Amino acid sequence: MPSRESDRVFQSYGRVCNNPQFFVDFYDRFMNSSPTIKARFADVDMKQQRHLLRNGIMQLVLHARGMADTKLRDLAKSHSRTGHDIDPAWYDLWLDALIATIRYHDPEYSDEVAHAWRTAIMPGIEIIRSGY
Ligand code: HEM
Question: How far apart, in Å, do the first and last CA atoms of the chain sit?
Fold first, then answer.
């Protein structure tokens, strides 16, 4: 049974994810959080990347609603030291950039919405991070 928190997150994502500018703003913010992170995306097709992230966040949201973690384990593998080699410390910056972008784009944003996001998607993020 999806929790009330995950309902909040599902609805919040519904309000922001159809606006392509949401993903543009997220990556601008995330890349500006560190020159090392910015460098990681230097040769990446960002149009395609934004599209992939739309689905990646959906996987985190669906995991919070009880879906199996198969897709997140694939992301854990691709982001591991033998894959994209993503430093585990960077996920905190990723989550902060996400919440700040939601704050800007979700007209119904509140502290409760932000808290629901952090609580709901943290377990999924930990699956990806812990695969390092
Ligand atoms: C929980 C948070 C994250 C999610 C949901 C996520 C999602 C994704 C997805 C769906 C892809 C494309 C598929 C794949 O390569 O497996 C991807 C690729 C990638 N991600 Fe992440 N990611 C996250 C965190 C991060 C962080 C913290 C970084 C740090 C820089 C990062 C850097 C990259 C890079 C460099 C690629 C490959 C781009 C390319 O070469 O085409 N990701 N991510």
Answer: 30
